Amino acid sequence: MTLAGRITVNWNPWPSIKTALQMLFLALMESAWIVGVGALLSSLNMPQSQIFAISSAAVVGLWVAGRGQGVGCDDECATDMNTKPATVSVVIPVHNGMPHLAETLASVLNQTRMPDEIVVVENGSTDGTAEWLTEHAPAEVRVIVQPSMVSAAENFTSAIRSAGGDLVKLLCADDVLEPTSIEVQSRALEQHPAAALAASQRRIVDNWGSTVVSNRGLGRLNGEVDGREVIRACALRGQNLLGEPCAVMFRRAAIDQHLPWDDSLPYVIDLDLYTRVLAYGTAVAIRESLAQFRMSTGSWSTQLNDVQRVQFEEWRDRAITTGLLELSPSELLRSRLMARVQHALRRAAYRVTAIRARRRPRATVRLSG
């Protein structure tokens, strides 16, 4: 099946029904008016030609008045009929994406609202990813191969710039989307035109997809929130409340202004971009888990864990220096304390994941014996 054949159209029948009822009401009113005016004028022994002229003028007046009172297709109806859904691109930058890339792509292809475009940008993989894409990439997926290996930030930037949709979602090659992710987030951005991005909660999973933490993210954020309030909430909570890119969808016009991705602080590469995008816009916080972030023992995020807290505090200080964040002395102290708390929680989660990784092969051997 082609990509176009799998797109789900979200059609609301109410505007059409409403219009039909309004037109029926208008027709009945016109008929009653003609009969009533005709009968009155006939009783006055007026010629038929004059009766017809006066009745027609009365009907025109009724129709014009009715338009002013909302009879017929109103502005809301006209807007619903003429507005087209935003187009959506999903981009997947990948370096050594095996063995999870197939599951990642399957999650994108099984959405309740199919994206209009799926792009994979291959970046110098040495684990068979490029070969797998050549042989097995679905027809709906466009594959771009970097001429030479670039940094993760450069590959992220290339992926976003390759997208042609009004809305863009960047998905790392080992993460997974829940089936309604694109439908829910794209609808949120369509309903909130001032929003630069939409973010949901997500589920943290291990290498095998087992849940480590459920409904992670957002803190107390809910609905449409001013961008600078989101930045402030992250600083006070000591963590990136919006989560990894799998939990976020961008408005293309907003993110284009703030490329490229900046990996001068690798751990907060996503939070750094969110901050720039949200400086003059809003975010829609969706309190529903719409993605799975895989915290594998060999992942980039695990390797960076030892410097996460330091880089978060450097991000916060940068936001203060650039005027995007204001904290009182007591709030700054709170932010530093919470950064250490979140650091300890992350280390505990990574240890749990590492223990599971060590035990799993032994458990498999026992079962097979």
CATH class of the largest domain: Alpha Beta
Overall outline? globular
Number of strands: 10
Q: Can you identify the CATH superfamily of the largest domain?
A: Spore Coat Polysaccharide Biosynthesis Protein SpsA, Chain A
Task: Report the sheet-strand fraction.
Answer: 15-25%
Which spans of ≥5 residues are poorly predicted at pLDDT below 50? 1-20, 62-81, 362-369
Mean pLDDT: 81
CATH architecture of the largest domain: Alpha-Beta Complex
How many helices?
13
What is the fold named in CATH at topology level of the largest domain?
Spore Coat Polysaccharide Biosynthesis Protein SpsA, Chain A
| Euclidean distance between termini CA atoms | 42 Å
Task: Give an overview of the whole structure.
- The protein has helices at residues 14-43, 48-68, 75-82, 101-109, 129-136, 152-162, 181-191, 227-237, 252-256, 269-278, 300-303, 308-321, 329-368, and strands spanning 88-94, 117-122, 141-145, 167-170, 176-177, 195-205, 211-216, 223-226, 248-251, 282-294.
- Strands 1, 2, 3, 4, 5, 6, 7, 8, 9 and 10 form a ten-stranded mixed β-sheet that branches.
- It contains 13 helices and ten strands.
- The radius of gyration is 28 Å and the shape is globular.
- α1 (14-43) runs antiparallel to α2 and α12 (308-321) runs antiparallel to α13.
- The protein is α/β, with parallel strands linked by helices and 369 residues long.
- It folds into two domains: 14-82; 88-355, Spore Coat Polysaccharide Biosynthesis Protein SpsA, Chain A, CATH 3.90.550.
